[in-house]
Fold each of these.
Amino acid sequence: MTDLLLQPDVWLWLPLVAFAAGFIDAIAGGGGLLTVPALLTAGLPPHLALGTNKLSSTFGSSAASWTFFKKRLFDPLLWKTAALGTLFGALFGALAVDLLKAEWLEKALPLAIFGAALYTLFMPKVQEGRRHQPQGEHLPLKQGVQGFTLGTYDGVFGPGTGAFWTVSTLALYKLDILHASGVARTMNFISNATSLVTFAILGHIHWGLGLAMGAALMVGAFLGAHSAIRFGGKFIRPVFITVVLIMAAKLAWEAW
């Protein structure tokens, strides 16, 4: 591992991969499906690859979530219950990961992601800008359960968390896809940052690579978020569906 990481080209192509992952992740999620295999290819053992990826993805999700917030496409006061659920779920998942067997997740995940793509493709379209606030009965309960469930999943496994946030937000609150993307990016940042603390305590982070990739991810996420906001649902929707279908195919190939 050390010999490979000393090669200058590794420090060049890993940030390039991170830039692409940040751009895609800010729009549709799924950036980890690029960065984790890249880190493994560079020679990092799995636990170190996952921790380093959490460091870099925290940078990227922070840039994307801040961009959506600054453009008034996400109101944290309306989502505080979801944020708390996500935080506790991510902490629980990160601590419980060693107690769980991931084989069934690896086989079920492609089916779930494929279902998410189909839902997004065929769901009734909500007019952009029509709904800015989550609505419905038992809102705190829905947000808390959604946050804890997806936070736990991100802490235990990770791939596709942003996509699941987007789809579940569309289904539960009938927001347009632009506002749902703002929610997804912010909650993804919360679960990333929470899991990152656990990986840091365990010493499962290559700080040099993580920071280099994190800087590139931030730039990619900034550009991706601005592209999503500028072009709206007509841009996000096809990119989202394409990315999640590729994610499902890749994970199915690896698991089955």
Amino acid sequence: MVSAVLFPRGHSDGSIFDRKLMELNKGMRSMPLSLFLSVETFPSHSPI
């Protein structure tokens, strides 16, 4: 999976990356990847 490359388990913050990976997997089921990436790139607290 691409997400496995984005969030390697060997990282020092493995637990955080594992949670992000779970969030990504849930997001993939509920919305398109492009929408998920746009939300990650432009958080709601950032001005448009």
Amino acid sequence: MSIRRKIASTVAAGFMALGGGVIAAAPAHAASFAFGCQPGYVCIYADSTLNALQNGNIIARFDRYGANNLDNINGNHWVVNNQTGGSNATAVMCYNYWGGNCSGRVVDVQPDGWNTAVVVDLTPINSIWLNRP
């Protein structure tokens, strides 16, 4: 079995085991790419399909702490938090531009250092706030 197929089957198994909404990726402390997302970044994928995630089909990525505005990104998308600061390095969905009303979904790094991939409806989201670890 090729490495790509092994990864795909592992991702699919993780997707099913976690109820279809959250996938754990490689440990953050390893400073590795998670589904094509560079270490230190939060990435948004083309849609919410496993193909978009597995193929690393990234449409936006952010590495600047604080507010990061989104432009014309609507619907369900995978969001991967591959920040390298541990469990305090969260990405918070904000309903207003420039980090206003940040009461949406929090995409965190798991306490054990594993990154998190989450499907988020970005239609009402206008910015993502990256918290400094």
Amino acid sequence: MLKSLWHWLKQLWQRLWGKSPQPQEAVTLPEVVATPQPLTATDYEFMFHQLLEGVAHGWQSQRVEKFFNQVGDRATVTDWVNWISGFGYTVLNSPQPNAELARRLELLAIQTQNIPHVSEVGAISYALSTQLMLRQTGGEVWEYEGPDG
């Protein structure tokens, strides 16, 4: 206690009379460069649903491209294609109808068809969308049989 009081008084005296205490050596900490972690399956699912939600709300090709550019340091297009394949397998094995998911996947395919580096994502999304729609109709394909058909 007395030591800390003496130290405080000594510093006060030095500040008042212009003597600064000896500068202490600056300790430099090593710079930590954080490398982005790859996406987990949960991350892929969350981000893919965000992407589909955005497309459903009117995202155009430029916004979709920006999405993929922003996550590009954590996942490649090949990673996305592989994940969507697994996701598609799960969705197709589910007994629940997924008309809304099929519609959003089709919208994603439309928005990515003119973005060369992510067109693969659009192609697999379109294939999954088609399979979901065919499953809902029982595989029936309706054809127009009118007078001009």
